[in-house]
Amino acid sequence: MSSNVGLTTPRGSGTSGYVQRNLSHLKPRDNYAPYNKDFDSIKHHQQRQPDKDILEHERKREVEVKVFELRDRLEDEGVEEDEVDEQCDALRKKLESQRATGPNTRNLKSHQVHELARAKIEESERLRKALGIREDYEEGGHWREREERKGEREKEGGKGEPRDGAGGRGYRDRD
Q: Which terminus, N or C, of the chain has the lesser number of Cβ atoms within 10 Å?
């Protein structure tokens, strides 16, 4: 036996005394932090921007799939080639004009990440306009301005803002 590992003697233990290392033991990671703890460096959540080329390609692909299905069906029915081309061109123009009005966001699947991202940005923009939020709004800006005013007042010799906003009649912040 080496380096005092395991049983001093296997007698009476019901084992052979062979020592194996524990493969299921997880060693703790040193200083592992999954998220950034510096909140000042995180200005705000940035939405994923959709790739315009992928969106355009996906739109064209959907149109061409429907045109191909029509072409396949007409060829199976025995329609002349010129008539098939005319109907396919008419369907293509009709579908492209419909897609220009806007996509249907209700039928998006989870794998359509760029379409979902575009729909989310449009939804956020509509919500921002409905609530009257400025475009240059920065999250937490009110508190930062309040702290700056409090710091300026302390430099001037004041004590800070009243907690209840009662104009000096309520409790003051305790430092």
A: C
